[in-house]
């Protein structure tokens, strides 16, 4: 390990950059300064907090604490999925669809990676379990958020086309075929892009971090390849599940399109 | 043949109706009085209270896909989900079927986006008759048609009712049209505020 530690003034310098950007934006009257500052402060506080939590967690490696951390991450991610939708599915159902679709693939694949692939002992070693789960959850969250947003917006704007098919006696699956396909494409586009440009345009963060802390590049690359495949699989499976559950929720038992189950835009 | 008892939705009813085979009932009344809501409820596209029966079989006892094939609703603005017209037909309509509504076969290969509302309404009717419904629910089907095309549409619907022993509810704001086609007319009035 030959990591050079950062000092508070190092971080202060980067904060100055964001401050400068905000001033430039506001001088040009483009009005995004406030959210830039708020989200930067949010990011700093959140990361410092999670740093403290991880320090504590690494000290007391117990499956219960690791599991609890995973649960908190999941519930927060579920919240973010809801917040990113213009016409989210109302009520507990909407939240549960997002959380279920995230939890099933993310936890299954993270566990598989820990137990079968990396084979770290014990399997809940927080240095492995938490970052792994975090990266999978974060990407799955984005995919599911995009997929559900596309689904619910598409149902609202495409109501006439969907109902026209119902009126011809088509069932809901046939009437939503195009909508479900488009939603999955939207959900997976960032993942496909990520896979396409990996290593060419962008050096992925995890690999960069490992290299910075002294891991031989080829070892870091192997981890990154595993990570990318886990992320792609979990995001794809999660998005498919979310779109499937969401599409069902759009209709009632008499196969009526129920846009009243969506929140107002 | 078609019985409606105490049918009501959020904005209309309760309404009682009966239709015999070959009967055409015209519905009229001010906008927003719930005519479309009523037709949507009859097609079971909208939650509603009350009973609807087709040939003594209750609506809720029939699978919704089957019900909507038999009790077919043509909305005031029909919906299209594929780029070209022909993609919306299980069986592309023949020259005569098109001509009976004043359309020519080249329309089948055209893009839906380039068509007028009147053309789409006529194609919507064709698409719907394809499934041989027993009750037609027509929401101002000829509102965007020139007088000649409107007459063609009226003739087509009446002929269908005759040959298929079907019944129809036709929303029309045109008193002359109602005079021409209706066996009966019903005015839907605004519901008293409860």
Provide structural commentary.
The complex is a heterodimer of chains A (265) and B (194). By secondary structure, chain A is mostly helical. Chain A is built from ten helices and no strands. The longest helix of chain A is centred in the last third of the chain and has 33 residues, at 217-249. Chain B has a single domain, classed as Rossmann fold (3-Layer(aba) Sandwich). By secondary structure, chain B is α/β, with parallel strands linked by helices. The longest helix of chain B is centred in the C-terminal third of the chain and has 18 residues, at 147-164. Chain B has six helices and nine strands; from the N terminus they run βββαββαβααβαβαβ.
Break the fold down into its secondary structure elements and pairings.
The complex is a heterodimer of chains A (about 260) and B (about 190).
Chain A: H1 8-27, H2 33-59, H3 63-83, H4 91-118, H5 126-157, H6 159-167, H7 172-175, H8 177-197, H9 205-212, H10 217-249
Helix pairs in contact in A: 1-2, 3-4, 3-5, 4-5, 4-10, 5-8, 5-10, 8-10, 9-10
Chain B: E1 2-9, E2 12-19, E3 24-28, H1 35-42, E4 49-54, E5 57-58, H2 64-70, E6 71-74, H3 95-99, H4 117-129, E7 135-139, H5 147-164, E8 167-171, H6 175-181, E9 184-187
